[in-house]
Amino acid sequence: MAASGSDAFAVLASKIWQISTGLKRVSGNGAPSVVEIANLDFEPLVLMISCNGSFSYYDGGQGNGNKSAQISGRMYFIKGENTGSLSATVNTGRDGTTKIDVDPTISWYPNGFKISVRTWPSYTDVYASIANWYAIGI
Hints:
elongated; 4-stranded antiparallel beta sheet
């Protein structure tokens, strides 16, 4: 179906969407800190995740105050380039400036992947989760 200059934006978008690129995709949401996907009908090459992390620390009556932090964001990975993390700095509480990180670990499979996230530092209550994920491949 050919596009023309007089087509409305929605019509053009629909026509563009029909162009075959050979790429396949899959997505999911509401995951815990580990997602493992297998038996896809394609090889995933790009992975995008939206994740969250938090920690809290109770100072046990030391008088320095409790500490807590939250972080959320997106990370993008290309097969063979397993790098990336989320970081934030907390300037309150027990020991002044403390950094919070959400670090991923990725295993790539021919027809799937496994990704896990963890939060650092290891204070009293630590939480990390994957809110949404998307995999694209051929």
